[in-house]
Every structure is written in C-alpha cells, then in structure tokens.
Amino acid sequence: MAALSTSHAAFAQEAAVRFTVPAQPLAAGLLSLGREAHLSIAAPTLLVAGKTGRAVEGEFTVRAALTRMLDGTGLGYEFVGPNAVRIVEGPRSKAGDAGETSPAQAAAEVAQLSELVVAGTRIRGQAPVGSELVNLSRDDIEQLGRATVTELVKTIPQVQSLGATDGLNGHRGQGGVDNQTAATSVNLRGLGADATLVLVNGRRVAPTASGAFVDVSQIPLSAVQRMELLPDGASAIYGSDAVGGVVNFVLRKGREGAESSLRYGLGSGFHEYDVGQSLGFDWGSGSALLAYEYYSRTRLAASKRDYFQSDLRAFGGTDYRDPYTSNPGNILAGGVLYAIPKGQDGTHLTPAALIPGAPNLMNAQRDADILPSQSRNSFVASISQDLTPSVHLYLDALYATRDFEKRLGAPGGANTALTVPNTNPFFVSPIPGATSTTIYYSLVDDLPQRVTGSSKNYTVTAGARFDLPREWTLEAYGSLGQDRASNLDTGGANNFRLAQALADPNPATAFNPFGDGSHTSAATLAKIAGSIRYRNTYDVRVASLGASGPLFSLPGGDVRAAVGTDYRYERLDAFSLLDYDQPTPYSLPSDGATHRDIVAGYAEVLVPVFGAPNARPGLQRLDLSFAIRSERYSDFGSTTNPKFGLVWKPFDSLSLRGSWGTSFKAPRLVQLNEGQNAWLYRPFPNANAQPGPTTPVPGYSNTLLLFGPSNKNLKPETAETWSVGADFHAAAWPGFKAGLTYFSVRYKDRISAPTVEQVSALLAQGSVVNDLVLVRHPTQAQVDAIYSQPNFIGLPLPANQIEAILNLAVANFGAVEEEGLDVNASYQFGLGRGQVTLDGGLTYLTKYSVQRVPGDPFVDQLNTFSNPNRLHGHVGAAWRRGPVQAALGVNYLGGYDNNLLPVTSKVSSWTTVDAHLGYTFPDAGGLRRGVSLILDVENLFDSDPPFVDNEDSKIGYDPEQGDPRGRTVSLTLRKTW
After folding, report:
1. Are 166 and 963 spatial neighbours (Cβ–Cβ below 8 Å)?
2. Are 451 and 413 in contact (CB under 8 A)?
3. Is 749 left (phi over 0), alpha (psi -120 to 50) or beta?
4. What's the rounded Cα separation, in Å, for the pair 720 and 664?
5. I want to staple 136 with a disulfide (CB 3.0 to 4.6 A). Which of 227, 339, 421, 814 is the partner?
6. Are the beta carbons of 325 and 410 closer than 8 angstroms?
7. How far is it, in rounded angstroms, from Cα 960 to Cα 952?
8. Are 136 and 157 in contact (CB under 8 A)?
C-alpha cells in the first residue's frame, strides 16, 4: 500500500495533465484545479480571500499548474500527502514525497484546512458530482453591497422570493408558512420556505415558525465567509427539507488579528446601521474567533410610500376603502348606511346630523408600517485545538437575539361591527324608538394595533476529528440548538368587555363610537383592550458519527466513500394566551410540548472511472457518484432516498453533468398535533341542496366540519428531482466560463387543505363518501360525539338538520410539477493595470403546474401572483486595481400576471441597479493601516416596485416580489488590526 501511495504521489507531481481552468477567484480556481487533477487542495479561506488565480489552460504537471495559478498571489504550496496539497503563505513550493510527512500528519493538515466545498456531499475535499453549485465568496458578498443575509439572498436567481420576510406575515401560494415574528426564510425554486434546507457550517440549526424554516436574518453577514447554494434535491445527503435545495452559510474561522467595522445606511423614510467586531487568535496548535455584530433599522411607515394605501385609483387600480373599516364609522339601519359626521366628538350627535347613502371611507393602511423596526445582536465563536497531529477538537457557537415592532393600522382584527344598545349614553339611531343599532367602526384611533416580538436562537456544536491510516477521517460531533420566538399583538378590543362598555349607561365609563377619532376615557380603553400572545420554543439536538476516505485505487483515481449515522431530537413547546373574545384570557388546546426522534444512516461513494492518469480522447474525465440515506421518524415511519450523479468531460473545454434522486419533507410537529384543529358548524355551498331542514338557505347545506392545520395521519411530502447540465471553458478565451442546467421537480403528497370548491363539488354529488365527505345524514349519536368535543364551535343543531360531516383539515393532497433552466457565465480579464470581472446568471422557468387533489388536472400557475416568476436574473461588472475596487450590478425580475382580480392584468417587469465603490489604504504605518472605506448604493435609480392591484392585501404592490425600501445609500468604515 505504501508503494502504491508513492507511485500515485509521483504521478500527481510529475505527470502532465490537460487543464482548462480560467482566471477566477483563487478559491474557485483551486477547486477546479484539484477536481481536474484528482487532488485534495487545502486552502484556508482567509488566506485565499480577495486573491485572483491565473488561468491554467493546456498541458502542465501539477506542480507547474499550481505555480502558474498562484503566480502573483504571494502564496505557495506544499504536498502533504500522496494526493494532497496545502496552500501556504510565501512562495514555498515543495514536491515532497510520501516519506516527508507521515500519513497521519498529512491527513490532519488536509482535514483541518480543506473547506472549499461543504454543501452537497459528505466526502471531504470533493465537490458534489452532477449538481450545480453556486458559491459566493467573501469578495462576492462585499461587491454586492448588501447589509444583511436577507438582502444578500434576494440577488440569487434561483431564489424565488424569500417565502417569508419581515414585511410579510405569511405566504399565499408557494407553500405558505405562518410567520408571526418578522422572520426571513429562503425559498429555492419557489417550492416553499419549508422545502429549502438552511445549514450553518454544513450543519442544521434550530428552525423558527413552529419548525417551518430557519430565520436567516439572525445570521450576521459580517461573520459569513462564503455562501454555498445547491439548487437540487439533496435528501440523500441531508435528509428532510432539502427538496428545493440547500443553502449553507460558512462562517469565518480564527486567524491572528482583529477587524472592526461600522456601517450607516440611509433610505427614504428609514435608516439603518450596524457595528461589528471580531478577534482572531492563533497559537500554532489551535485558533479561535470571537465575533459580535449589532444591527438596527427604523420602521418604514406606510405614509412614506404612496402605493401602500387602500385607494389605488390614482394608479389605475381599485379603491379598497370600504364602509366597514372607518373612523368615523357608519350606522346600518333599514338596509341603509348612514355616515357619522366628521369633526365632532359624538356627545351631541342627533339623528338629523347623520348622512344617509354616503358612508365614510378610510385608508386602512393610514397608520401602518410597511417594514417593522428591527434590532439584532449576534455572537459567533469558533475554537479549534489539535491535541495530537491526528486528533482535532472544535467548538462552534452562534447566538442571536432579535426584537421588532410593527404597527398594523386598521386591518388584522381592529375592525368591528358594533352592536350598540340604547342604554349607551351617546346612542343615536335614524330609526325612532330603536333599542339598538349597528355601527361599522374602526378601533384604529382608540386602540392602535401593533405587534411586538422577539426571537432568540442559538446553536452550539462540539466535535472531534480523528485522522486515521490510509487517508481516512473519522468525525463525531454533537450540537444543541434552540429557537425561542414570541410575539404580542396588542390593540383591538376584547369583544366581551367591549360589549359591556357599549351597554354601560355611565358617560364617564361607556365606550363612545359616535365621534370622529377617539372619545372614550383612557381607563375604559385600558379595560376593554385585548391581546394575543404566542411563544414557540423549538429545540434540536444532534449527534453524528461519520467517516470519509479512499476505498481503493482505479486507473482514473481513488474511489472515495463516506458513511455515517445521525441522531436528531426535535421538540416543540407552544404557549398562547388569548384575550379577545372571552371574559378572561385563555390558552389554546394545542398548547404544550410535542417531540420526536430521528435516526438516520447514510453512505456515499465517488468513482473516478476516467481521470488525469488514464484520460483519452472523448474521456478526459468521467466521475460517477451514488448516495443513499435512510431515516426513521418516531412519529410517522421511515423513508429512504437515493441520488445518482455523473460528470463527463469529453474534451478540455466541455464538461457534461447530470443527477437524479428523490427527496422528502417530513410533516412538521405542529402539523401532527391535532389539538390545532376545531369542529365547526357551518352552512356549506351545495349546488344540489334540496329544500328541507338541512337547507338553511338555497344553495347551502348545514354541515359539521373539521377545520385546521393538523392531521396525525400525515405522511412525508416526496419529490423526484433530476437535472442535466454543461460547463464550458474556452481555451482560446482565457478567463471565460459558462454553465447551463436544465432541472425538473416532481413534488407530490404536499400537505395542504382542500378548497371549498373541491368539497362543495363532492357534496353536490349526493352519494359520495370519502376522506372529505365523511358522513352523510349523520345519526344523533354521531353529531353528539362532535358537540362534546372541547374544540367544537358553533350551533349544536339536531341530527335531522345536518346534511353531512366534512373534513377540511390538511392532508397529503397536492402535487407540483416544475421545470426550468439556469444559465450563468463569467469573464475575467486584465484591463491596463486592473482586473475586470463580468458575470451574470438567470433562472428561466418553463413549467410550474399545481394539482390540488389527486385525480384533478394539473393547472398552470407559472408567472401568476404568489407563484414562481418565469424569469429572474442578475448581471454584474467589477473592476479592481490595487487598493480601488468598483462594481455595478443589475437585478431583473420578469413581469407576471395578476390573477387576483376577475380580469387578469399584467404586472410590469422590474429592473434595479446597485453600485459599489471601495478603497483600502496602502499597507503602511499609522492609523490608516488596514483601513477600508466602502460606499454602496442599492437601487441606484430609486425604482419603485411595479404596481400590483393587490386584492389580497389591499395595497398597490406585491410584498413577495417587490422591495419597498427604494434607494439605500450606505457608507462602511472597516479596519483590520
């Protein structure tokens, strides 16, 4: 075995290999060079960050290729094993031999430093085979000029909106999730926030929103070294949630020194700032990084954007003001609405002053916020220590707290139809002798509604890596994570106490709804005020054991494998306190803790059939990979998912790749907790309803129905994904590369609720009994069993008045078929004494069809409101010369159809331009040493998001696709010590 290793070491250093690596950021160039030569290249990210590697195109020995790529970077290389190279400071270049470094030391150095690729494979030092991988380096991140991770991911074409943002409480079409704490998700491929797996340092973190998604706004951007995005199914590698793909944030590691940063950003109607400090330590056998970031942003009020209002007629849209949401209010009497006059306090109002047929109208967004105020504290710690040359310990920790406050204006429960008895001292009615009257009235001036909340998230991982003989590595780690999210919704009234105040005959304590504005005593308002409080705590504990290394050698290179097992414990603890419709606050039946255990085993193998040692015409490289992962859940069962990958390089300038696999998304704990559901009495649409006791009005039947977001019998959502692609490097055009990927997703068993239309059609058929129409003409015993449930709401009618018992709870109903194309290209070249980089990428969807229930036809939903956009792209140009760097970026979102209205209308495309300018003072003594000044402008031309007549939110833009911030100018001061 030693002789074999020596032979391969000699080959790796001396044999000529044909390379097609264009000039590009050094980290990416080393990755490509290592892949083509079948070498593991260890390159510390802090060492190669900001450096550009020269093109290596043609036949070179590995040593010559490394020397050429590193020319001018001030870096060198050393062979530390048979097929392993590390990048070092200084021009050192040593060929070495297998005897210079012990196998344990060689493996240790490679394992400690090799961090170029994490996402998409468990095999150390290798890239995922067959799948597209998007990698944003620290330089890329800085050139994009974004302040937060939230804004960064918006620039990536494969991200179809964010799914959930601090300006959007939920998601209407793309796998909607509940978002009560102004969190931010990532939504790859438009399949939903809960179908994208987010990792930090390649590991899971605790999710928010009752386990729906990871809140990426809690990740400090200043601590991110790079971001990896794998827009492909990856459950064979990671398990649940990796249907749309994987996003991995790799945080900075320890290096001697410190960095301080201060940034201030200003936009129309808001400002933001962040400060950061990091400290790095290196003591030879180990290192540590401690980093802190504080971020704050003021609210963006609705009054600062003219399209964020209810009356959209000025834009050619609809007037969404209505007489049921107004202050002063409107009195309903005899089928006529009477406007309460403006400019009076309701204490001397007479029937003659009421204005019939001309009701008051009000902008429901008058006092609302578009974006909440936010503040965040983030802490990152990373410590590593070598106990011996072959035993390495590490500890990674991320802790973040975030607070927010948002004014909701009139919507969201602040609108009330008030029944006012004539005992109210301010009572007025246009009908003489009336004993009560109905007023449509907004409480927005009496009890302004707002939501405040906080989120605390931490993940602590401790592990050990053991370098074994024959280049194998064994790693074991454990992690603890928790997300604790809470919010308090205040404003609006407790309806029970409000009714008492409306009937109160005392003018000093009665509620007065007859004026313009608020004219009720502060003590009464405090007494009737309602609130809703939620708190969800999600705990994740992980234990993992895995090994990776070469199995044996083939003529094309070493066959490498990874095997391991994972254990995960998840626990959701829900708490609520509702004070809006009962005399005293109460909690929901679904409150309490639920948990589950997950045990998984996985294996992955990479087979280099052809490589540099045995390359031939038409077969410069041929790699095959296979991965499989099996998981057992304690609450619903087991699932197994395979994945195959292939890379074929027929000649120097072209690589072809493909992948196929299955993925899944497990039901969330909250979805399996049936305490969330309720039994309701409801008249339900029935086109064949016959006159009789079960028909309250024509076209409707009395029903008892189960409604809610949970079902203990849910099974996993499953998907089949495949992709084919090509990567092109032009030998005659150094510095140019391009890629093309066609992908397909077949996503079925999606968890969703049946629509009213679907159930109504079944009910009208008269004899159908199935999972939706549970019982027709139920017995008294059957309805009594439902009435006795603590979660029954409604009128307990006798059985002879109930037509059917229906099931509208969620189930595995839906399916999605999606296909599309990813295109990317970049060109790097010298211009004078500077370096220019042009790059661009776009995603073009060709299909997005939705099936609501099995057996229904698939309906085309592509390019419609709250569904994936057909075209999303970004192009950029960057120039760097010495201490100066400048960049321009253009973001494009294609137009789409607004199908919310009876007549579908077109939504315009949207183009924004970003600018970046940076200067680093020359490395000299004094306070200027290590100082950088950076100016960034997002949305340079202050382009408003396209107008959308948004019937869903009653505003003039689409918060899922548009960004209301407008032009944002920021200045950053950074100093390294």
Report:
1. no
2. no
3. left
4. 9
5. 227
6. yes
7. 12
8. no
Separation of first and last alpha carbons in the chain: 48
The whole-number pLDDT of residue 87 equals 86
Q: Which of 383, 428, 461 is nearest to 200 (CA)?
A: 461
How many whole angstroms separate alpha carbon 548 and alpha carbon 883? 42
Per-residue pLDDT of 934-967, as tens digits, reads: 999 999 999 999 999 999 889 999 998 999 999 9
- Quickly list DSSP for 573-630: EEEEEEESSSSS-B--TT-EEEEEEEEEEEEEEEEEEE-GGG-BTTBSEEEEEEEEEE
Q: Measuring CA to CA, which residue among 78, 76, 67, 69 is closest to residue 9?
A: 78
To 10 degrees, what angle do helices 26-37 and 62-70 make?
Answer: 170
Bridge partners of residue 742, in order along the sequence: 724, 821
pLDDT in tens, 514-533: 999 999 999 999 999 999 99
**If you compute the radius of gyration of the chain from its CA atoms, what whole number of angstroms results?**
31
How far apart (Å, rounded) are the C-alpha atoms in residues 795 and 941? 58
Of 684, 674, 673, 670, the C-alpha closest to 794 is 684
| C-alpha 317: how far from chain center | 31
Whole-prediction pTM value? 0.85
pLDDT in tens, 253-287: 877 788 999 999 999 999 999 999 999 998 888 99
CB-side neighbour CA atoms (13 Å) of 458: 7
* Residue 887 · residue 141 · CB < 8 Å: no
Question: 734 CB contacts (<8 Å, ≥6 apart)?
Answer: 22, 23, 55, 57, 829
